[in-house]
Every structure is written in C-alpha cells, then in structure tokens.
Amino acid sequence: MEIPYVSTSRPDTGLYNAKLGIWLFLASEVMLFGALFSSYVLLRVGAVSWPHGYDLLNVPLATVNTVVLITSSVTMVMSWASLMMKNFSRYRMYMGATILLAVVFLVIKYIEYTGKFSHEIFPSTSTFYAIYFTITGLHGLHVIGGIIVNAYFWGAGSKMWKSDPQRFTNRIEIAGLYWHFVDLVWIFLFPVLYLL
Amino acid sequence: MESTNVEAVKKSVRTYILVFVTLMALTVVTVAVSSLHLSVGAAIAVALVIASFKATLVAGYFMHLISERKLIYSTLALTAIFFLALMLLPISHMLDGLS
C-alpha cells in the first residue's frame, strides 16, 4: 500500500504530511529548549551573583562556531534549492558541505569541553557551568542527530532521487527545517551563555 | 509551470545569500557590542534584540515561514503562547520575591 501525501499536498491542510509532522516536532522542541532557557533565567535571577560568560568561556571559539553553523544553514538550504533546480550533483556538494561544517562545529565544541575538563571544570563546578553543559550538551546531541540524518540523505538515502525525486526533495526540505532549528537555537545560546 | 518554479528558486537563492551576509554582519555586531561591557540590563536587551532579528531571518527565509500555510502559523501561534508562559514563570517568581 502506498503512503498517502508524501509527495503531494493534502487538500485539507495544503501540506504534505511530513511537513506538518516536522513542524509539530519542532514545536515540541521549542518547549524542550524553552524549559531549559526558563530554568536558566530562574537560576540567574535567583542567584546572589552570576558570572559573565565572557570571563569563563571561550568567546572566539564560540564565535567561529556561530559562523560555522550559520554557514551550514545556508549550505543546507542551497542543497534543497539545488534539488528544486534538478541539479543532483550540486545537491551532493552542498549537503556534503553541511555535514562537514556540522562535524567542524562538534570538533570545536570538543576542544571547548576538553579545555574545561582539563582545568577540572565540570557541570558540578557551579550553577553556571551546570546550565552551560546541559544546554550546550543537548544542543550538541541535536547536531549529532542532524549529521546522522543528513549523512543518510547524502549517501544511501539519496537513491530515492532516481525513483521518486519529489518525495526526496520533500525529505531534504524536512531535514533542512530541523537543521535550521538547530541553528536558530544556537543563535540564542551564543549571546545568552557566552556574551552576557 | 516547471520553469516558473526554477526561476522562483533562483530568485530565492539570491535572497539566501543576502540573508547569509546579514546574519554574518549581525554576529560581528553581537560580539562587538558585548566587548563594550554595557550594563547587564542593556547588554541583555541588545543581545536579545539582535538574536531575535537573526532568528526571524532564519525562520522567515531558510525555513520559508514568510510564505507558509495557515495550519503551520496556527501551530506556531499556539507554541508561542506556551513558550511565553514558560518564560513568564521565572519572571513571576522574581516579582513574588520583590513583593
């Protein structure tokens, strides 16, 4: 049996099903990160004193990571645009770049984390570090999830381009929506944790 | 129809590049402003305004929210209400402490 509305839009919603699905998932993600942001605000306003992120964290590395993640968002949307223009080889190039940039982001994060660990700084060190490691750790897990999905669409999953190009293009749009959300979360994390 | 689509996507690509350049410039502004070491209130206000503007660009153009279906707007409006409630919780706690 064929799954309905994977390529075409449902007449009542005007959307293919996966698009509504990913937006509902992203809505739940907003609440997940929202709960942690809310906890951060609660902990910060309730604290007697709160350190400046720029005194404790590596701002240059985080700035580079911001540039890396924003660039990966552009390459992601370009990979989808390439499929819309029926250019599969360009899609592979942009998707490959997105995956590479995501890996660079994680390597920089690894350098940041190990730098802290080598100075005996752990989540248990202070409330600031507890919330820093929790939020950036959860965000890092999302980056890993994105790499896995994108790597599948770059490799084995891309076979669908030949059998059902419209459905494959939709899949990349969905993966892109997730990836842009990961970028969007970082856009708030960076100033809130590192610069304030 | 097909060629119209391709033309529309080509036009979008130019917008993506413009958004990318704006996001980069705003990242530089964010870091530059933080190095001024403004008062905590002013620093938070500036950082959040710039971050919100950047987020609007990403959501509007990369996530295509600028031209999306009504059902997605409704879903996001509901999410925004719950998100706002989450953010108001610590603020109401703070006001409790003041009274």
| % residues in beta strands of chain B | under 5%
End-to-end separation of chain B in angstroms reads 64 Å
- The value of Rg of chain B in angstroms is 19 Å
Low-pLDDT runs of chain A:
none
Helix count of chain B, per DSSP?
A: 3
The count of β-strands of chain B is 0
- Classified by CATH, the class of the domain at 63-119 and 131-196 in chain A is Mainly Alpha
Second rung of CATH, namely the architecture of the domain at 63-119 and 131-196 in chain A: Up-down Bundle
Largest sheet of chain A: none
Average predicted confidence as pLDDT of chain A: 96
Largest sheet of chain B: none
Helix and strand run of chain B: HHH
Seen as an oligomer or otherwise, the chain set is: heterodimer
Task: Please estimate the helix content of chain A.
Answer: over 70%
By secondary-structure content and strand pairing, the structural class of chain A works out as: mainly alpha
- Helix share of residues of chain B? over 70%
Give the helix tally of chain A.
7
Shape of chain A: elongated
State the distance separating the first and last CA atoms of chain A.
Answer: 55 Å
- Would you count the extended β strands of chain A for me? 0
Write the layout of secondary structure elements.
The complex is a heterodimer of chains A (196) and B (99).
Chain A: H1 17-46, H2 53-56, H3 59-84, H4 88-118, H5 127-154, H6 160-163, H7 165-195
Helix pairs in contact in A: 1-5, 1-7, 3-4, 3-7, 4-5, 5-7
Chain B: H1 2-35, H2 40-62, H3 70-98
Helix pairs in contact in B: 1-2
Characterise this structure:
The complex is a heterodimer of chains A (196) and B (99). The radius of gyration of chain A is 19 Å and the shape is elongated. Chain A is an all-alpha fold. Chain A has a domain of 123 residues: Up-down Bundle (Four Helix Bundle (Hemerythrin (Met), subunit A)). The model of chain A has no long low-confidence stretch (mean pLDDT 96). In chain A, helix 3 runs antiparallel to helix 4. Chain A is 79% helix and 0% strand. Chain B is 87% helix and 0% strand. Chain B has two domains: 67 residues; 31 residues. By secondary structure, chain B is mainly alpha-helical. At the A-B interface, helix 1, helix 3 and helix 7 of A face helix 1, helix 2 and helix 3 of B.
